[in-house]
Input
Amino acid sequence: MVKLTAIFRHQKLLGLLTATLFTVGCAQPPAPTDSLYQQLGATAGLEQLVDGVLVEIEHDPQIVHHFKDTDIARFRRLLIEQLCQLSGGPCQYTGASMQESHTGFAITPADFDNLVNHFIKVMTAMQIPVASQNALLAKLAPMYSDVINR
Amino acid sequence: MTSCFKLSCAVVLVLLSAQVFAGSKIIGTAGATSIEGAAGGGLVPWAVINGYASSGQWSVTGFRNQVGVDDFSLRTLGAGFSYGNQFEVSFTKQTLALDTIGGDLRQHVVGVKYHVAGELLYTEMPQISIGAQWKQHQNFELPQAVGALDATGIDWYVAASKVWLDAVAGRNILLNTTIRATKANQTGLLGFGSADQHGYRLMTELSAALLLTPHWAIGTEFRQKPNQLTFADEEHWRDVFVAWFINKNTSLVGGYVDLGSIAGLPKQQGYYLALEATW
Output
């Protein structure tokens, strides 16, 4: 676990660098101000959200083992990209389908619930309004069937 | 106030001061505990499973409900167990005090519920559960005297519950429909069946809740009831409620109930209170 945590920290630093490059690349015409993307704080907000969720995952013995072979920097970049696209932001998700990327992980319903709890906890700490939280969860919830027991 | 109620209060204070591990399910998705011990609303069992245990986890729940209407008060006390968000079992003791008539009616309920399909929050298909409530009347003399046939009965039900995320003004909505096959008179507190009615009757029960925040919900319920005893009419039940999910270990529900006519005494309306502790 200690070793994993160290890898995690190291990769997070790498991730920050990658993300900076990525952010520059992603800067395109702004989304409408009332979009979910804006309510979540645009790219800066999504980065804060994903970093917060990564910290929660790191401290969650229920799910952290799923990430032991994960390239965290890449995972972070793709998750930000995906949330950006899902929330109507100016990004294009370039990762694999949810079904593909979770195959072989045997993600359980409890794992999925924990990740949802982490999202809610971090969004609440970021003072994202309940309506915006629900709007994002409504986009994430349908992924359940693609992610579970693959 | 009974010592039991004081004990409940003490438990709540302890839980408020330190939340202990309570499983992975999202707060609120365990519902509350209905009067017959099944996870649900106040009067209606829902398809949700009690406690916050998700896959591979287990959970125990203790609950205490109190209903006070014009001429009666119903007190329930019980405990439940669930595993894997898959099944729940519960045992409930009910006491209906006949405040105006005098005396009381007591019943024990053993409940089981099995989650068959769907996921409350995550799938397009509603969560669907089937359940049974085995009820044993404890002092059957009065129900028998007013025409009830049996002291024991089993209710069977199928329930479908679904949460729509971001449904109205950014809030989540829960809808539930339960179909119950029952022989019970006043949920069994007046026994089961009568001289001319001894088959099962199908009843519809409906609930709707608006989840204002992860911790607060308001809602309303309707429970259709049979009318089998000739000595007095039995009417459908309704309630409106406010639920406070303080944390995953403690919830408190307050409401207003309309239980219609009971044992010839009309317009039985009053309060509903439910306290639940779960680990």
In short: The first helix of chain B runs from residue 3 to 17. The helical segments of chain B are 3-17, 141-145. The mean pLDDT of chain B is 93. The domain at 3-278 of chain B is CATH 2.40.160.40 (Porin).
